[in-house]
Amino acid sequence: MCTLAAEETSSWLMIDPWEAFQNYQRTAVVLDHFDYEINMILGGVHTQDGEHRDVRIMLLAGSDLISTMSEPGVWAVEDLDHILGQYGTFIIERAGSSMDQATDNLARWRNNIHLIPQLIQNDVSSTKVRLFLRRGLSVRYLLPSAVVDYIEENDLYLDDGSNSEKEKGKGKDNGLGKREDVTM
């Protein structure tokens, strides 16, 4: 789905499917993987004047995820030190999440935490998209069309783990926020 979204909306984004083909990996391990692949295997980047530079790998996350980092016991301190100390993060503000409170609790890594304020109210998240789909609501115009088509073609997120059309609430999104019954 990320590849479909990038193909439809960008000519300069690259998608690496490595994480999707792994069993669960901690965020620190994923960042280490990309650091190795980009800086060691690919050799970083080469500037127009021929200079070689390593790429700085950083975590991009919504403020809702970052707020979990400030909750005791949710993240291992060693992982936080690795993620925020070695790599750093860009935090995108999300409605309903307090960036100040989250970053206050992560003050130790303040120099590696960069806040991106939300200039236009947008609280679309993968959690909300899945919830909309389970409730039979349309996600068209929230996601790139190719991603919506893929989700519909594969009947994704209609129910928590169920594969039967009857249990999924039948049908496909007609793009207008309504479900159309499908005859099998």
UniProtKB/TrEMBL annotation:
TM annotation in the entry: none
InterPro entries assigned to the protein according to its UniProt record, in alphabetical order: Euk_NMN_adenylyltrnsfrase (IPR051182), Rossmann-like_a/b/a_fold (IPR014729)
Region feature Disordered, mapped onto this chain: 161-184
GO BP field: NAD+ biosynthetic process
Molecular function per GO: nicotinamide-nucleotide adenylyltransferase activity; nicotinate-nucleotide adenylyltransferase activity
Gene3D superfamilies, sorted: HUPs (3.40.50.620)
Biased composition (Basic and acidic residues): 163-184
PANTHER family referenced in this protein's UniProt entry, alphabetically: NICOTINAMIDE MONONUCLEOTIDE ADENYLYLTRANSFERASE (PTHR12039), NICOTINAMIDE-NUCLEOTIDE ADENYLYLTRANSFERASE (PTHR12039:SF0)
Protein name: Nicotinamide-nucleotide adenylyltransferase
